[in-house]
């Protein structure tokens, strides 16, 4: 049976690309399972004598508090930015009012402001002008709260505000395809703008919510700059901050612990994508 050389070449290129992109994951995984990460070539699996899960246990013990803090940070920041972006896009797309083009231009400008440009003013704002750990001090007397939750709240607000522009852009693109006849019919029936959003626009937005939730959750979860500037290392630090010093010492670097910690830290974003993957595909294809 003859084979088309072009098809064979195409599959060969695809297999090579898959191997190229999966090789770092394979090297990281096998490194995390070795008792001595430097004893053999990084891409070779561990020997039966060198196989261990102890590095994973060590990494989890060091990062478990950071994982909880990252969940407390990423979930509300993601939901808040997606919901505010949806509301803003609804007001900029479905409703007609003077000046909405200029307001939308400001939202677009917010997308292109790099993190590094706002680090100093953001740090000064939360530490000097609005120190939540001092303003909300009565709350820290409750059993489940501590002063570092003030910095965590500041970090949530910062990520939510920084994520609203990109969420607004995504939702506005999606809402431009919503049937205007359906919205006009609801208005003729006496529905208010709030009712139209809650009963028509919001149920239709599920696929785009999946897109924004996955995107924003990944951005917030993987952030290190804002976490270091606003909160820094300590009891309330997210997992990315704890990951920076994991396995490091003055005399040695625990590569196996670092790789295990990296996989543990990345696991929640994979879970989110698996949960919302179908809706994500629908939202991207729309």
UniProtKB/TrEMBL annotation:
**Recorded topology in the membrane:** Multi-pass membrane protein
Query: Gene3D superfamilies this protein is in?
Result: MetI-like
Domain ABC transmembrane type-1: start-end pairs: 67-276
Keywords from the named record: Membrane, Transmembrane, Transmembrane helix, Transport
The species is: Halobacterium sp. NMX12-1
Residue ranges of the TM segments: 12-33, 71-92, 104-132, 152-175, 196-218, 255-276
Report what the protein is called.
Carbohydrate ABC transporter permease
Can you supply a Gene Ontology BP term from the record? transmembrane transport
- List the GO terms this entry assigns under cellular component, sorted alphabetically: plasma membrane
Give its localization: Cell membrane; Membrane
State the family it belongs to. Answer: Belongs to the binding-protein-dependent transport system permease family.
Organism superkingdom: Archaea
């Amino acid at each position: 049976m003859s084979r088309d050389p072009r098809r064979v070449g195409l599959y060969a290129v695809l297999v090579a690309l898959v191997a190229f992109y999966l090789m770092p994951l394979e090297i990281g995984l096998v490194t995390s399972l070795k008792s001595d990460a430097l004893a053999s070539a990084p891409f070779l699996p561990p020997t039966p004598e060198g196989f261990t899960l102890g590095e994973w246990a060590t990494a989890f013990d060091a990062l478990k508090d950071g994982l909880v803090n990252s969940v407390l940070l990423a979930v509300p920041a993601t939901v808040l930015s997606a919901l505010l972006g949806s509301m803003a896009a609804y007001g900029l797309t479905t409703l007609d009012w003077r000046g909405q083009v200029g307001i939308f231009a400001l939202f677009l400008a917010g997308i292109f402001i790099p993190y590094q440009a706002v680090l100093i003013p953001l740090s000064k704002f939360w530490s000097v002008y609005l120190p939540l750990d001092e303003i909300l001090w009565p709350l820290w007397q409750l059993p489940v709260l501590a002063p570092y939750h003030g910095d965590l709240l500041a970090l949530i607000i910062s990520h939510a505000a920084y994520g609203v522009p990109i969420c607004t852009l995504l939702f506005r693109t999606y809402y431009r395809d919503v049937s205007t006849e359906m919205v006009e019919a609801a208005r003729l029936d006496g529905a208010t703008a709030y009712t139209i959003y809650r009963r028509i626009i919001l149920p239709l937005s599920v696929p785009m919510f999946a897109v924004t939730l996955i995107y924003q959750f990944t951005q917030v979860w993987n952030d290190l700059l804002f976490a270091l500037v606003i909160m820094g290392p300590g009891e309330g630090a997210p997992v990315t901050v704890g990951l920076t010093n994991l396995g490091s010492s003055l005399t040695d670097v625990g590569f196996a612990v670092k790789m295990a910690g990296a996989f543990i830290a990345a696991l929640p974003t994979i879970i989110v994508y698996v949960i919302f993957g179908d809706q994500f595909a629908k939202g991207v294809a729309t």
